[in-house]
Each structure stands twice: as C-alpha cells, then as structure tokens.
Amino acid sequence: MNNINLSNSVVSHIKDNEYLQFKRLEKYKDILTHAYSVGIDKNYRTFKANREALEIRDYEKNVNNYKELCKAIKLNSDNLIKANQAHTDNILCIDKIEKNEKIDTIEKSDGLITNKKGIVLATTNADCILLLFFDPVKKVIANVHSGWKGTLQRISEKTVGKMVENYGCEPKDIIVCICPSIRKCHFEVGKDVKELFFNEFKNLENINEFIINKENKWFIDTVLINKLILKKVGILEENIEDSNICSVCNKDMIHSYRAEGEGYGLATAVIGLV
C-alpha cells in the first residue's frame, strides 16, 4: 500500500480501498454515498500495445475499477451509468437504467443528473475536472466532467440550470464538490487557448487570477473559473468544496494525462442516492 496520504480539511483518504471522500458529503451518508478512486497501477501506466488492445484493456480495467469502487462504498455496480465524455456541454437526466452485462455508457454526454435511488452516476478523469453536485433538500445528485473545453462551454453552471429547471432545486441549497484535477501550477496552454478563455470569461472579475502570464507562458486556473461561474448562478461560496489536490503534483497517486502520456490511466468518481 502506498504511504502517501491525500487527506486534508475537505477530503478523507480511505487507505484500505484507495479512494477519497468529501467530508461534507459524508454528513449525508444516510442519503447518498460517493467516492473518487486514487492509486496508480504501475503496470497499467506503462502498458504499451496497439490501439485495439489498449481499448480492450481500458474497458476491462475500468469495469473492474467501477465494480471495486462501488463494492467498497456499498453501491450496486449493476446500476452504474457513465457519461461517455466527449468534451460537450450535454447534461442528461437519468430516470432509469437498462440492465445488461456491460456498464451503460450514455453517448454524447458529459454530465448526468438523477433523483432516483439506486442509480450510480460515474465519470472518469486524468487531469480534467470532475464535479459532484448534491441538493440535500430535493435529494438530487449530478456527476459532471468539465475538461478545459467543457469549462469554456460552462457545463458546470448549465448543470445547475438543469437541476433548477427539471427538479425544482434552488442554487443556494446545492453543494458542489471539486475532485482532484490539474491545477494552475501545471495547466500551461498556448496563446490560442488563452485567447479562447479570455474571450469567454473577460467579464468575470479578477481575470488576472485565472489567466496567468508567467515568464511569457500562459497558465489557466480552470478550477477558479468554475468556482466563479457557479457563484454567478447562485451557488454559495460555503457550498463549494474543493479538494485542492493537483493531479500532476500528485502523479504517484492520481492519474494525469500530462504526467503519464500514452497509456495514461483514469480515476473514477461515483455518486449514488441510497
């Protein structure tokens, strides 16, 4: 077992099964359960194969990850549904799940919402932001993948809008948890991407805090951007729970595309009402 402990004031690192849980959500363990997987399989990281074999390996590895993670937190992996994460702003409301032998993957989606008990919502990342949403009043959950393209498309604030429109949620009640992801210390971008962020978010306050010029290099703080746009749509600052963990800085425990390169692994976030 790895000696690294990622626990902090926001998340607990459960070492027996190598996953993180948000302390704020744990207060509602009679209503929901959740987890974010950590730990690096060294053989998985260095696996080299042709693309077809790699895809088979990815599928089989991820199915095992889902099952092991769900078992650890007492969720039924047979009821797991995953966004296919095509870097869109598509958010789908899930009312039922079709039973089959494989993990159900919803095409053309990067966000999933439900108010149904027993359905497990899943996303994966390797630097991108994953956000877990929970309204303890209406008992609604969401699991959202927001890479830099999803952030540009404001998928996190659109998720809030959908929770309000479809489930009657009030933004002031919604808790948002930000899983480990690449942070501004490592998210260096070219001038073209910097311009995209500037044009989209130039009306936000403190632009120099999330578009940073350091020694003629550009760095983007996508986590801060998500916090700002979430607050703009009514999420209370005290209801935003940030893990404050950088995937690149902690590459020995958290999968990172930038750190691992080809053959990179994926971490999994799951959440479900019980």
Notes on the structure:
The chain has 274 residues and is α+β, with helices and mostly antiparallel strands. The chain has one domain: CNF1/YfiH-like putative cysteine hydrolases (4-Layer Sandwich). The protein is 28% helix and 26% strand. The chain contains 9 helices and 16 strands. The chain has helices at 23-26, 42-45, 51-72, 148-152, 155-167, 191-201, 207-210, 222-232, 257-260; strands spanning 11-14, 19-22, 32-37, 80-83, 91-93, 104-106, 111-114, 120-125, 129-135, 140-146, 175-178, 188-189, 211-214, 217-220, 240-242, 267-273. The strands form 3 sheets. It has a 7-stranded mixed beta sheet. Strand 9 (129-135) and strand 10 form a beta hairpin. The longest helix has 22 residues, at 51-72. The radius of gyration is 18 Å and the shape is globular.
Q: Write down the domain tally.
A: 1
Strand content: 25-35%
Uncertain runs with pLDDT below 50, 5 residues or more?
42-57
Q: Which CATH architecture? A: 4-Layer Sandwich
Helix content: 25-40%
Number of discrete helical segments: 9
Fourth CATH level, the homologous superfamily: CNF1/YfiH-like putative cysteine hydrolases
Shape: globular
Question: What is the class in the CATH system?
Answer: Alpha Beta
Largest sheet: 7 strands, mixed
Remind me, CATH topology? CNF1/YfiH-like putative cysteine hydrolases
Order of helices and strands: EEHEHHEEEEEEEHHEEHHEEHEHE
- Summing up helix and strand content along with how strands pair, one would put the structural category as alpha+beta
